[in-house]
Amino acid sequence: MFGFNNHMLEVLFDIFGGIAILYGSIGYIISVIFSKIMFDILGVKPILSLIPFYNTYRIYKEYKGRVWKRNWGVTYLLTFALPMAVIGVFVFTLINLPIITGDRFYDYYALTLILGLVVLVVGGLIISVFNFILLFTMYLPIFNTKGRRVVLYIQAALTLLVVFGNSIILKIDPHFDSLLLVKIQMIFSVVFTIVYLLSAREVRARIRSGEYVLQEKLDYGTMDSFEVNATLKARERKLVVPRISKTTNYYVLDDNVI
Fold first, then answer.
1. For residue 42, how far is the Cα from the chain centroid?
2. Which of 111, 125, 188, 243 is deepest in the core (most CB within 10 A)?
3. How far apart, in whole angstroms, are the C-alpha atoms of residue 112 and residue 108?
4. Strand partners, 68
């Protein structure tokens, strides 16, 4: 039906599987390193940084009441972790179907292939859209310089262009290299990763030296919604602030080094 033989499909899935494993492994390692640094700042047990998905969720949980009003970790689990899990199940299923392991290609399983492709596309789109939101909700609180925030805005713009820009540009210029934006975004992602890891390390160093202190969590039980919003806005979405001698409504100013 599709003109694929068993050997071609095996090679195709081996290549796809190898790329997925490599990309996932690198992403996991970076996630653990970043989570470990953030957990040092937030006072969370470092061993928990080894748990995939939960490590990111826990950072968001600690952000709640300090920089964001809501726990963005719930949104993260629903729009990132869950699609990733579904994609993983489908890839595993496709690899183990008789399409790959049998002696010949079975047209009967063509629907499964098509369904798997749809899941990959839809899941990838959901992940990409949330990844745009993740850039701001996760990294903005530790980007305390204009230069770093410019890097954040560029990364966000490239993320949107990769997801939505190609189709628009191709309508204007049919000869445009549709992979060019992807290549630029991948290269700049390396720069962005280095920037947010260095930023997190700098924040941790300032916390340990006593130069900066961690924002206290707001007590939602004693504040109404307006007060919570006003306080978080006044904090300018910063996770840590310089230690000062006078007590204010927005900074942690005790004498103990966190």
1. 18
2. 243
3. 8
4. 64
Which residue's entry shows tokens 């492994």?
A: 25
* % of the chain with per-residue pLDDT over 70: 69
pLDDT of residue 42: 96
- The rounded distance, in Å, linking the Cα atoms of 2 and 135 is 40
CA–CA distance from 245 to each of 114, 203, 251, 254 (Å)?
63, 20, 10, 9
CA–CA gap between residue 76 and residue 52 (Å, rounded): 12
pTM: 0.77
Q: Is the Cβ–Cβ distance between 107 and 1 less than 8 Å? A: yes
- Are the C-beta atoms of residues 6 and 105 closer than 8 Å to each other? yes
Residue 61 near residue 83, CB atoms below 8 Å? no
Q: What number of other Cβ atoms are within 10 A of residue 247's Cβ? A: 9
Q: What is the CA radius of gyration of the chain?
A: 22
Pick the residue with more confidence: 164 or 3? 164
d(CA 66, CA 17): 40
